[in-house]
Amino acid sequence: MFIFLVFLTDLNALIFIFLSFIHVYWAAGGRWGKDSAVPVNDHGGKLFIPGAGGTLIVAAGLLIFAMINLSICVLPGIGLYYSYLQYGIPVIGLIFLLRAVGDFKYVGFFKKHKTSDFAKMDTLFYAPLCFLFSMTHALISCLFL
Q1: Which of 6, 24, 41, 53 is the most buried (most CB within 10 A)?
Q2: Are 106 and 119 in contact (CB under 8 A)?
Q3: Contact 73, 9 (CB under 8 A)
């Protein structure tokens, strides 16, 4: 059981770290993958233009999520109180469950607009990854907390 818990937390952390690095790359001016990372409206216009500061905030949040996952089994000495983990892990899972479900228009499994590059990537990768995060965090909550 403990090995499975270590596997889940390490997997989550590795993916969060990778995603954080992608956001840092975008904040530094990188272009790879950026065009399909933001939802677009019916006319092809981006719903928002992410700035470097906001992108770095997302990167920092993803790193925090990685550290929370790692603090369960791999780095328990980083000083997070059990109560932070007790509430933090389910909250992270809920955040990603809400993202997987989406806004019923442009984002998530139940979006209406499905033809843009973002929508295709969301259907194939983003929403399933968010759902995976929600399920792994639910399992971690059951196993650890």
Answers
A1: 24
A2: yes
A3: yes
